[in-house]
Amino acid sequence: MSITKKVPKDLVNLRLDKVSAVLFEDFSRTKLKELIISGNLLLNGEIASPREKVNLYDEIEVNAVNVSSTKWHAEKIDFDVIQETKDFLIINKPINLVIHPGAGISSGTLANGLLYRFPELENLPRAGIVHRLDKDTSGLLVVAKNEKFRLYFIDLLQSRRVQKNYRAIAVGTLRGNLEINKPIGRDKNNRTKMSCRDDGKEAITNVKCLESYGGYSLLDIQIETGRTHQIRTHLAYKKLPLVGDKTYNDRNIIAKNTSDELKDFIRSFPRQALHAHKISFKLPNSEERVEFKSKLPKDLKELITVLERFNIS
Prior knowledge:
With about 325 residues, the protein is of the alpha+beta class. About 20% of the residues lie in helices and about 25% in strands. Helix 1 crosses helix 2 (about 30-40).
Protein backbone atom coordinates (compact mmCIF):
# COMPACT_ATOMS: atom_id res chain seq x y z
CA MET A 1 0.00 0.00 0.00
CA SER A 2 1.23 3.49 -0.79
CA ILE A 3 0.20 6.89 0.53
CA THR A 4 0.31 10.08 -1.55
CA LYS A 5 0.11 13.60 -0.15
CA LYS A 6 0.37 17.04 -1.74
CA VAL A 7 2.66 19.79 -0.51
CA PRO A 8 0.65 22.58 1.18
CA LYS A 9 1.48 26.28 1.05
CA ASP A 10 3.23 26.36 4.42
CA LEU A 11 5.83 23.77 3.32
CA VAL A 12 6.76 25.23 -0.06
CA ASN A 13 10.48 25.54 -0.89
CA LEU A 14 11.60 23.27 1.95
CA ARG A 15 13.71 20.12 1.56
CA LEU A 16 11.98 16.88 0.62
CA ASP A 17 13.16 15.05 3.74
CA LYS A 18 11.92 17.80 6.06
CA VAL A 19 8.55 18.09 4.31
CA SER A 20 8.13 14.31 4.37
CA ALA A 21 8.73 14.28 8.12
CA VAL A 22 5.84 16.72 8.58
CA LEU A 23 3.44 15.00 6.18
CA PHE A 24 4.17 11.42 7.24
CA GLU A 25 4.31 11.58 11.02
CA ASP A 26 4.02 7.80 11.45
CA PHE A 27 7.55 7.39 10.05
CA SER A 28 10.78 8.40 11.77
CA ARG A 29 13.04 10.86 9.97
CA THR A 30 15.67 8.13 9.64
CA LYS A 31 13.16 5.78 8.01
CA LEU A 32 11.93 8.46 5.63
CA LYS A 33 15.48 9.25 4.53
CA GLU A 34 16.06 5.54 3.91
CA LEU A 35 12.91 5.40 1.79
CA ILE A 36 14.01 8.44 -0.24
CA ILE A 37 17.48 7.01 -0.88
CA SER A 38 16.13 3.54 -1.72
CA GLY A 39 13.66 4.97 -4.24
CA ASN A 40 10.60 4.04 -2.19
CA LEU A 41 9.62 7.65 -1.55
CA LEU A 42 8.93 9.51 -4.80
CA LEU A 43 8.49 13.16 -5.67
CA ASN A 44 6.02 13.59 -8.54
CA GLY A 45 6.59 9.95 -9.42
CA GLU A 46 10.37 10.34 -9.66
CA ILE A 47 13.34 9.35 -7.52
CA ALA A 48 14.64 12.48 -5.80
CA SER A 49 17.35 13.63 -3.42
CA PRO A 50 16.52 14.24 0.26
CA ARG A 51 17.81 17.80 -0.30
CA GLU A 52 15.54 18.61 -3.24
CA LYS A 53 13.22 21.57 -2.67
CA VAL A 54 9.49 21.02 -3.08
CA ASN A 55 6.84 23.25 -4.65
CA LEU A 56 3.17 23.87 -4.02
CA TYR A 57 1.01 20.81 -4.74
CA ASP A 58 3.97 18.57 -5.53
CA GLU A 59 2.96 14.97 -4.91
CA ILE A 60 4.98 12.89 -2.44
CA GLU A 61 4.34 9.16 -2.50
CA VAL A 62 5.66 6.85 0.20
CA ASN A 63 5.34 3.08 0.39
CA ALA A 64 3.79 2.28 3.75
CA VAL A 65 5.61 -1.03 4.06
CA ASN A 66 8.89 -0.29 2.30
CA VAL A 67 7.75 -1.93 -0.90
CA SER A 68 10.46 -3.72 -2.87
CA SER A 69 10.29 -5.45 -6.21
CA THR A 70 9.33 -8.72 -4.47
CA LYS A 71 5.79 -7.28 -4.28
CA TRP A 72 5.66 -7.41 -8.09
CA HIS A 73 5.25 -10.73 -9.89
CA ALA A 74 7.35 -11.95 -12.79
CA GLU A 75 5.63 -11.90 -16.16
CA LYS A 76 6.78 -12.48 -19.73
CA ILE A 77 6.88 -9.06 -21.40
CA ASP A 78 8.31 -8.13 -24.79
CA PHE A 79 11.19 -5.63 -24.70
CA ASP A 80 14.73 -5.46 -26.09
CA VAL A 81 17.95 -5.52 -24.07
CA ILE A 82 20.60 -3.85 -26.22
CA GLN A 83 23.44 -4.13 -23.68
CA GLU A 84 24.06 -6.18 -20.55
CA THR A 85 27.01 -5.79 -18.18
CA LYS A 86 27.64 -7.06 -14.66
CA ASP A 87 26.38 -3.70 -13.32
CA PHE A 88 23.53 -2.60 -15.59
CA LEU A 89 21.16 -3.27 -18.46
CA ILE A 90 20.33 -0.91 -21.32
CA ILE A 91 16.69 -1.41 -22.27
CA ASN A 92 15.06 -0.26 -25.50
CA LYS A 93 11.50 0.35 -24.30
CA PRO A 94 8.65 0.00 -26.82
CA ILE A 95 5.58 2.22 -26.76
CA ASN A 96 2.51 1.28 -24.71
CA LEU A 97 4.66 -0.15 -21.93
CA VAL A 98 4.30 1.22 -18.41
CA ILE A 99 7.52 1.23 -16.40
CA HIS A 100 6.30 -0.33 -13.16
CA PRO A 101 3.09 -1.24 -11.30
CA GLY A 102 1.21 1.66 -9.74
CA ALA A 103 -2.29 2.93 -9.12
CA GLY A 104 -4.68 0.61 -10.94
CA ILE A 105 -1.85 -1.28 -12.69
CA SER A 106 -0.45 -4.48 -11.21
CA SER A 107 0.86 -6.32 -14.27
CA GLY A 108 2.01 -5.93 -17.85
CA THR A 109 4.81 -3.50 -16.99
CA LEU A 110 8.53 -3.36 -17.71
CA ALA A 111 9.23 -4.21 -14.05
CA ASN A 112 7.20 -7.40 -14.33
CA GLY A 113 9.15 -8.32 -17.45
CA LEU A 114 12.50 -7.56 -15.83
CA LEU A 115 11.72 -9.92 -12.96
CA TYR A 116 10.82 -12.66 -15.45
CA ARG A 117 14.05 -12.34 -17.46
CA PHE A 118 16.35 -11.34 -14.58
CA PRO A 119 14.99 -12.91 -11.35
CA GLU A 120 17.94 -11.58 -9.35
CA LEU A 121 16.47 -8.08 -9.68
CA GLU A 122 13.89 -8.98 -7.04
CA ASN A 123 16.57 -8.09 -4.50
CA LEU A 124 16.69 -4.46 -5.64
CA PRO A 125 14.15 -1.68 -5.01
CA ARG A 126 11.90 -1.15 -8.04
CA ALA A 127 13.56 -4.09 -9.81
CA GLY A 128 16.64 -1.93 -10.44
CA ILE A 129 14.73 0.77 -12.33
CA VAL A 130 16.41 4.12 -11.65
CA HIS A 131 14.62 6.46 -14.07
CA ARG A 132 11.55 6.33 -16.24
CA LEU A 133 9.89 7.11 -19.54
CA ASP A 134 6.21 7.82 -20.09
CA LYS A 135 4.09 4.92 -21.32
CA ASP A 136 3.92 6.30 -24.86
CA THR A 137 7.56 7.40 -25.07
CA SER A 138 9.90 4.85 -26.61
CA GLY A 139 13.64 4.43 -26.22
CA LEU A 140 16.53 3.90 -23.85
CA LEU A 141 16.44 3.17 -20.13
CA VAL A 142 19.16 2.16 -17.69
CA VAL A 143 18.38 -0.61 -15.17
CA ALA A 144 20.79 -1.35 -12.32
CA LYS A 145 21.78 -4.96 -11.62
CA ASN A 146 23.24 -4.39 -8.16
CA GLU A 147 22.82 -1.96 -5.28
CA LYS A 148 26.22 -0.34 -5.69
CA PHE A 149 25.56 0.68 -9.29
CA ARG A 150 21.97 1.66 -8.48
CA LEU A 151 23.16 4.20 -5.90
CA TYR A 152 25.96 5.33 -8.23
CA PHE A 153 23.58 6.00 -11.12
CA ILE A 154 21.04 7.81 -8.94
CA ASP A 155 23.89 10.10 -7.85
CA LEU A 156 24.83 10.69 -11.51
CA LEU A 157 21.25 11.65 -12.30
CA GLN A 158 20.91 13.97 -9.34
CA SER A 159 24.23 15.69 -10.11
CA ARG A 160 23.30 16.03 -13.81
CA ARG A 161 26.12 13.85 -15.10
CA VAL A 162 23.97 11.69 -17.37
CA GLN A 163 23.51 13.01 -20.90
CA LYS A 164 20.12 12.16 -22.40
CA ASN A 165 19.10 13.00 -25.96
CA TYR A 166 15.68 12.56 -27.53
CA ARG A 167 14.21 12.70 -31.00
CA ALA A 168 10.87 14.45 -31.32
CA ILE A 169 8.52 15.49 -34.10
CA ALA A 170 6.78 18.76 -33.34
CA VAL A 171 4.16 20.99 -34.91
CA GLY A 172 5.86 24.23 -35.86
CA THR A 173 9.11 25.44 -37.36
CA LEU A 174 12.35 25.97 -35.46
CA ARG A 175 15.35 27.56 -37.12
CA GLY A 176 18.66 26.73 -35.49
CA ASN A 177 18.96 26.01 -31.79
CA LEU A 178 16.83 26.92 -28.79
CA GLU A 179 17.52 26.81 -25.06
CA ILE A 180 14.39 26.65 -22.92
CA ASN A 181 15.19 27.66 -19.35
CA LYS A 182 11.84 27.83 -17.58
CA PRO A 183 10.87 26.34 -14.20
CA ILE A 184 8.30 23.54 -14.19
CA GLY A 185 5.71 22.65 -11.56
CA ARG A 186 2.31 21.03 -11.24
CA ASP A 187 -0.37 22.72 -13.33
CA LYS A 188 -2.64 24.69 -11.02
CA ASN A 189 -5.77 23.74 -12.94
CA ASN A 190 -4.99 20.15 -13.90
CA ARG A 191 -3.13 17.97 -11.40
CA THR A 192 -2.24 15.35 -14.04
CA LYS A 193 -0.22 17.91 -16.02
CA MET A 194 2.90 19.98 -15.48
CA SER A 195 3.26 23.61 -16.57
CA CYS A 196 5.88 26.34 -16.83
CA ARG A 197 5.60 28.51 -13.73
CA ASP A 198 7.98 30.87 -11.98
CA ASP A 199 7.65 29.07 -8.64
CA GLY A 200 8.46 25.65 -10.18
CA LYS A 201 11.71 23.71 -10.23
CA GLU A 202 14.60 24.65 -12.51
CA ALA A 203 14.28 22.96 -15.89
CA ILE A 204 16.63 23.37 -18.87
CA THR A 205 15.99 21.88 -22.31
CA ASN A 206 18.24 22.36 -25.34
CA VAL A 207 16.56 21.93 -28.72
CA LYS A 208 18.12 21.61 -32.17
CA CYS A 209 16.22 21.34 -35.44
CA LEU A 210 17.47 18.46 -37.59
CA GLU A 211 14.93 18.66 -40.42
CA SER A 212 11.94 20.80 -41.37
CA TYR A 213 8.90 19.54 -43.25
CA GLY A 214 7.00 22.73 -43.95
CA GLY A 215 5.17 23.36 -40.70
CA TYR A 216 6.64 20.37 -38.84
CA SER A 217 10.11 19.74 -37.39
CA LEU A 218 12.32 16.80 -36.44
CA LEU A 219 14.11 17.85 -33.27
CA ASP A 220 17.13 16.67 -31.31
CA ILE A 221 16.60 17.44 -27.63
CA GLN A 222 19.05 17.30 -24.75
CA ILE A 223 17.77 17.79 -21.22
CA GLU A 224 20.04 19.13 -18.50
CA THR A 225 17.44 18.47 -15.80
CA GLY A 226 14.96 15.62 -15.48
CA ARG A 227 11.58 17.05 -14.52
CA THR A 228 8.34 15.17 -15.04
CA HIS A 229 7.07 15.71 -18.63
CA GLN A 230 9.87 18.25 -19.11
CA ILE A 231 10.23 17.98 -22.89
CA ARG A 232 6.50 17.91 -23.55
CA THR A 233 5.87 20.86 -21.20
CA HIS A 234 8.69 23.01 -22.55
CA LEU A 235 7.88 22.40 -26.22
CA ALA A 236 4.20 23.19 -25.69
CA TYR A 237 5.22 26.38 -23.85
CA LYS A 238 7.26 27.42 -26.91
CA LYS A 239 4.34 26.67 -29.26
CA LEU A 240 6.09 23.57 -30.58
CA PRO A 241 3.76 20.83 -29.29
CA LEU A 242 4.54 17.22 -30.10
CA VAL A 243 2.56 15.45 -32.77
CA GLY A 244 0.17 13.04 -31.05
CA ASP A 245 0.51 14.46 -27.55
CA LYS A 246 -2.95 14.05 -26.04
CA THR A 247 -2.03 15.94 -22.85
CA TYR A 248 0.03 18.94 -23.98
CA ASN A 249 -1.43 19.20 -27.49
CA ASP A 250 -4.99 18.31 -26.49
CA ARG A 251 -6.45 20.62 -29.14
CA ASN A 252 -4.54 18.59 -31.73
CA ILE A 253 -2.91 21.65 -33.26
CA ILE A 254 -1.70 21.25 -36.83
CA ALA A 255 0.38 23.48 -39.09
CA LYS A 256 -1.23 25.99 -41.40
CA ASN A 257 -1.79 24.89 -45.00
CA THR A 258 -1.67 21.21 -44.04
CA SER A 259 -3.51 19.14 -46.66
CA ASP A 260 -6.66 17.28 -45.65
CA GLU A 261 -4.97 13.91 -46.15
CA LEU A 262 -2.04 14.90 -43.96
CA LYS A 263 -4.42 16.36 -41.36
CA ASP A 264 -6.10 12.97 -41.03
CA PHE A 265 -2.77 11.22 -40.56
CA ILE A 266 -1.47 13.73 -38.01
CA ARG A 267 -4.69 13.73 -36.00
CA SER A 268 -4.81 9.96 -35.89
CA PHE A 269 -1.19 9.50 -34.79
CA PRO A 270 -1.67 7.42 -31.61
CA ARG A 271 1.06 8.66 -29.29
CA GLN A 272 3.39 11.57 -28.57
CA ALA A 273 6.15 11.57 -31.17
CA LEU A 274 9.00 11.30 -28.67
CA HIS A 275 11.87 8.79 -28.53
CA ALA A 276 14.76 8.50 -26.05
CA HIS A 277 17.49 8.28 -28.66
CA LYS A 278 20.79 8.39 -26.77
CA ILE A 279 22.15 8.07 -23.24
CA SER A 280 25.73 8.59 -22.08
CA PHE A 281 27.43 8.36 -18.68
CA LYS A 282 30.78 7.62 -17.03
CA LEU A 283 31.37 4.13 -15.71
CA PRO A 284 32.04 3.77 -11.96
CA ASN A 285 35.70 3.77 -10.89
CA SER A 286 36.77 4.68 -14.39
CA GLU A 287 37.29 7.64 -16.70
CA GLU A 288 35.58 5.75 -19.51
CA ARG A 289 32.34 7.24 -20.75
CA VAL A 290 29.89 4.93 -22.49
CA GLU A 291 27.22 5.92 -25.00
CA PHE A 292 24.21 3.98 -26.23
CA LYS A 293 21.86 4.82 -29.10
CA SER A 294 18.47 3.62 -30.25
CA LYS A 295 17.18 4.02 -33.80
CA LEU A 296 13.82 5.62 -34.45
CA PRO A 297 10.99 3.08 -34.12
CA LYS A 298 8.82 2.11 -37.08
CA ASP A 299 5.92 4.46 -36.32
CA LEU A 300 8.12 7.57 -36.15
CA LYS A 301 9.93 6.59 -39.35
CA GLU A 302 6.55 6.28 -41.04
CA LEU A 303 5.50 9.69 -39.70
CA ILE A 304 8.63 11.28 -41.16
CA THR A 305 8.05 9.56 -44.52
CA VAL A 306 4.51 10.96 -44.66
CA LEU A 307 5.69 14.46 -43.71
CA GLU A 308 8.33 14.34 -46.45
CA ARG A 309 5.71 13.30 -48.99
CA PHE A 310 3.41 16.18 -48.07
CA ASN A 311 6.14 18.74 -47.39
CA ILE A 312 4.33 22.09 -47.65
CA SER A 313 7.40 24.33 -47.65
